[in-house]
Design brief:
The strands form two sheets. Strands 6-5-4-3-7 form a five-stranded antiparallel β-sheet, with no helix packed on it. A two-stranded antiparallel ribbon has the order 1-2. With about 250 residues, the protein is α+β, with helices and mostly antiparallel strands. It is built from six helices and seven strands, in the order ααααββαβββββα. The radius of gyration is 20 Å and the shape is globular. The termini are far apart.
């Protein structure tokens, strides 16, 4: 029976599991198709961390096959270019870079949630479920794709692994007013961004005194405003999102 083009492609059992030749071919595909977003070793802020051995779409080979073949909300579909065998080989390679870790958060998730929304004011930029703003990355399922160390670093050194598309735009208008925000669009002629209050701005370079883009995060370094215990609690709260937590 022909595949219905309006339905997600089904995934049978991986025919290339533990096939060394197929894994080598999958590595070449990874380098050409996946490296820009997922990075060497599978861990980069731009896309979910593939090195953890657990994934937001499910942990079976079939789950990885479906997301690679069909694509997702942000991820493009590769089924049309890699075809079935290619996708399976890529899945087999991804399995070799995953290093499942037994991570045990030590903070208080309930206390961390309170700090997140109140003292940290993280909801001014981040959305969890239907609550918060969409200035920065959505965190609804962040725990399913990020390690404890990554979350800790994101709070205490936000510039270290800045996600693609979240650079800081700075505009100085012709009357001297300075505006800053998170990039939403940028080219040779213009820039679009959201400020910390969630207001959208769009400017042509020719209409302002200065317009610059910096690979820096607008997010503050929370080690300067939160105690180590509070940061640990927030990390524990975030780690539970998408993993059976709130």
């Amino acid at each position: 029976m022909a595949q219905n083009p309006n339905e997600p492609h089904a995934a049978p059992k991986n025919p290339f599991a533990n096939d060394l030749k197929a894994i080598a071919e999958g590595e070449e595909m990874y380098r050409s198709q996946c490296l820009p977003c997922h990075g060497t070793g599978g861990g980069r802020a731009t896309a979910p961390d593939l090195s953890r051995g657990t994934y937001g779409v499910g942990d079976r080979d079939e789950d990885l096959y479906r997301i690679i073949f069909n694509g997702g909300r942000v991820m493009p579909a590769f089924g049309g270019t890699l075809r079935e065998d290619g996708v399976w080989k890529l899945v087999s390679y991804v399995r070799t870079i995953s290093k499942p870790l037994v991570e045990k958060p030590t903070g208080n998730a309930a206390a961390g949630e309170k700090v997140f929304w109140e003292k940290g004011k993280c909801g001014q930029c981040h959305r969890v479920g239907f609550k918060g703003a969409a200035v920065g990355p959505e965190l609804t399922k962040v725990g399913a794709s990020r390690s404890l160390q990554y979350l800790q670093t994101a709070l205490t050194d936000p510039d270290k692994d800045l996600g693609r598309g979240f650079a800081t735009i700075t505009v100085v208008t012709k009357d001297g007013k300075k505006l800053q925000g998170v990039q939403r669009g940028y080219d040779f002629f213009s820039a679009q961004f959201y400020d910390a209050e969630g207001n959208f701005h769009s400017y042509f370079k020719s209409d302002v005194k200065e317009l610059t883009r910096a690979e820096k995060s607008l997010m503050p370094n929370y080690s300067k405003t939160l105690s180590p215990a509070e940061i640990n609690d927030v990390v524990t709260f975030l780690y539970g999102l998408g993993r059976g937590g709130k």
